[in-house]
Amino acid sequence: MADDFVKRLNRLDCCAVSDAMDKLGLAGGVSGLGQRASTRRIAGRVVTYKLVPKDQAPVVSGPPRHLGTTAIEAAQPGDVIVVEQRTGLDAGSWGGILSLAAKVRGVAGVIADGPVRDIDEARGYDFPVYCRSLTARTARGRVAEAFTNEPVTIGEITVHPGDYAIADASGVVFVRADDIARLLDAAEAIAGREAAMARALMAGQPVSQVMGADYEHMLR
């Protein structure tokens, strides 16, 4: 069933999903996370990790692991990795080797609330990256991973592992796993009505009629 949800989500765009969230009274949209590498829309289940200042990182036993590697190895093909790097430090939360590793793993893309580096490499791999900003500065000595696959904060939205994400050039939307079925039903209905409006325009109907009262009440 979860795979069916991802397939359905992939057939939509962020605007239809955002409109459906409004219709249902749900919060999940995040603006300002730009489409930095690849022009492909992404949608999938969420795998998370959070970065904190280096001196606040938890002490862990065993050999050190590079940030993001645990999330990549935990991800299934088609998953979306979501990163919280809201430390205020100019330090990469994702980089070129991670992009290649994630692409090889079959990860759909990464969404980072924070800086990302090596963006030219990600573009060369055609690996989708959505992020708050770009930087050349390394994470080494600046930030470290606090945890993987626990809730993170992206914009004003709390995102849980196993939630759903969709991202395109218009924005990013997160959907709680408990809400995905009714969200998809609502979004597909909205997308269907907009497709009918497009057909009416192509058939010669005036735009003032197409975008009349029915359009204004689509979300009711």
UniProtKB/TrEMBL annotation:
CDD domains for this protein: RraA_family
Kindly list the positions annotated as binding Mg(2+): 118
> What are the TM regions of this chain, as residue ranges?
none
Q: Known Gene3D superfamilies for this protein?
A: Ribonuclease E inhibitor RraA/RraA-like (3.50.30.40)
Instruction: Report the InterPro entries cross-referenced here.
Output: RraA/RraA-like (IPR005493), RraA/RraA-like_sf (IPR036704)
Q: Which GO terms describe its molecular function?
A: metal ion binding
Residues reported in the UniProt entry to bind substrate: 95-98, 117
Superkingdom of the source? Bacteria
Q: Is Cell membrane among the key words of this record?
A: no
Name the needed cofactors.
Mg(2+); a divalent metal cation
Keyword annotations for this protein, in alphabetical order, are: Magnesium, Metal-binding
Return the Pfam families for the record. Answer: RraA-like
Protein name, entry field: Putative 4-hydroxy-4-methyl-2-oxoglutarate aldolase
Q: What species is this protein from?
A: Pseudorhodoferax soli
